[in-house]
Amino acid sequence: xxxxxxxxxxxxxxxxxxxxxxxxxxxxxxxxxxxxxxxxxxxxxxxxxxxxxxxxxxxxxxxxxxxxxxxxxxxxxxxxxxxxxxxxxxxxxxxxxxxxxxxxxxxxxxxxxxxxxxxxxxxxxxxxxxxxxxxxxxxxxxxxxxxxxxxxxxxxxxxxxxxxxxxxxxxxxxxxxxxxxxxxxxxxxxxxxxxxxxxxxxxxxxxxxxxxxxxxxxxxxxxxxxxxxxxxxxxxxxxxxxxxxxxxxxxxxxxxxxxxxxxxxxxxxxxxxxxxxxxxxxxxxxxxxxxxxxxxxxxxxxxxxxxxxxx
Length: 311
What we know:
alpha/beta, Rossmann fold, 7-stranded parallel beta sheet, 11 helices
């Protein structure tokens, strides 16, 4: 069976690339001949079924973003082929146009798995039914154990997007990093300019798994979702840096869901709070045991969606 999987890949974001690698590998393990397609590429006619892959790709802050992914499943339906959303994440549908387009696309799919319970609530409000709550597909990869020889590290968003003032928060993080001689682990090329502008030392890698193997800290402060995923998978405690009590973004949600420690970077004096947590050291918890649980949930979500395409 030939399967087309559409999603974000090749834009310099290691988390998006990890989702792609995990879903292609899982599909192959189930006997599917899968090909990955970037947004706005719709060669649906030569495939037996279509899936829209995971990551936080469903939002309408840019209408063309959600329209691109919806076109895949809409085109599949018109061609009489099965389609699914696989371990997807949502990041807000705030316009009538965006909500209507997403609601229409949900009617065209045969299966939906999402990466957290809040995503299920969002899609159910738009008319989706029978949603499987899984985890992000990137959990399904095999990560090396971190070396953990320093007190602190950062997986940090440095650019400004969707209301996140990267430069403002990076300045505070840099203060703490300088205290510990800490490195910033770069999960997206979008962060390079900001890190360079503030003179941050940063570590790069070709894949998220490779980056996890370069973690040399016992704690990683994260504003990047896949920084959290890779830290836990490498046996390192993530401290989630979130934006106020009303923050309902993906990082804040996983913090509450997994009972992770966090720092409110909208609060006064937050760099000192983060510095003190680094000094206290990591809490004792079976991080790799937690990663194994998350890995299974991610695999279960892919199994649910891909199986529906084979039936």
